[in-house]
Amino acid sequence: MAGAVLFLPTTRATAAPEPRTSKLRLTAGTRTLDVHGKPARVFDLVGPNGKPGITLSPGERFDVDLVNQAGTSTIVHWHGQLPPWKQDGFPWPQTPPIPAGDTRSYDYAPIAGTYWMHSHQGMQEQSLMTAPLIVHSAEDMRADRQEVVLMLHDFSFRSPDELLAGLTTSSRNRSAMPKSGMDKAVSMGSGSPGGMNMRAMGAMDMAPGTAMDLNDIDYDAFLANDRTLADPEVIRTEPGGRVRLRLVNGAASTQFWVDLGALSGTVVAVDGHPVRPVRVTRLPLAIAQRLDVLIDVPGNGSYPIFAQVEGKQARAGIILAASGAPVSRLGAEAVEIAPPVDLSLEGRLEATTLLAPRAPDVTLRMILAGAMAPYAWSLNGEYWPNVTPLMVAPGQRVAIEMVNHSMMAHPMHLHGHAFQVVAINGAPLAGAVRDTVLIPPIGSVTIAFDADNPGRWAFHCHNLYHMITGMITEVRYPAII
User: Fold this and answer.
1) Is-contact 320 297, C-beta < 8 A?
2) pTM score, two decimals?
3) Which CATH superfamily is domain 221-341 in?
4) CB contact at 8 A, 244 and 265
């Protein structure tokens, strides 16, 4: 396949290198990717070793010069990390985008785990301005496991502006349809791409006749480590190999079910934060979320790992194969349509280190709303940038109940903080510590966090087209004076 491969090498963790004496260099640029035999110009983020993204050793600082050679302004967000707010990579007036040809420096103490980086400039994320950000822990270095990063993307030969225009134009046409016609289109999976009846899919217990929307955009391809299943990446393992699979959903607006096939695994971390082990064979992975899965590969065979799009048969994937094992051709579509991504795994997760027991000092309620027609999405009835910031105070325990009044799930991401999932649909839960959580249609999730990182912090739906049409707000608080 033509073009650079956008992934970390699949090697074992080794002893930490000698301390660095100079900054790491991360270059934002462009490359040509081959998709279905056609060239496509996309962005990339290349680290100092010529590989995409950055990998740090235990205790190593995120001491990085970001060099913009992309030919246009950009800014990169270190998704899930907890830097000072002016190093977070969001285009506030105080932290404008980096002009083409310029360099910006970052220096903070990172937290260990599976993270990623992506542009927060316009819709560059859709054009693959993304890469892994892996921060090893001391435990990682001691583990005798082969590390495999699997990063997922959705891809279109159309520009992001064309995709957005298609959504807004389609929504105007849909708003002119008789209501019964619109309901039928959504229920049968036409009109809005991927629309599907929720009761038929068993996603939630909703009133008869209601339906949810899936997959705003009809993509040309879905990529696993930059490749389709016509030419999947084959990762060679030792017989009986032990693998740590780091899953990253870097798609702009697509959610996946990850199917381990004949393998089974143990989830040990979500969004970079350890959880009590959960055995799995099939996992929901919302936009921007990450999962660390330990897999023991049996024998000398080959084992595909698929990522299937919710509401579709389309899928991407990689193959884990012992050295010399034959690899069969894989179909680009599954036999059955995947159900909507849900909270079935979320309800089983428990952080290994919970928030300290404490009642919230403040509880905020956020209403998520919007529709496919007209295509616009809001938080508390407001559309970015005309929003009222959520004001909190330093040191507070903050709870936010997110209530989804829309017919589409929303993966909500809070910058600069790790929060704990403490309730699903009002039922208390000692859940995972995360930075991104899915709010299902006509459902609610409550999170809690400590206000210990003052500044201005974006809080938004990580479906790019929901965010760009208004679904973003701000959490703000000053430092203690």
Assistant:
1) yes
2) 0.89
3) Cupredoxins -  blue copper proteins (2.60.40.420)
4) no
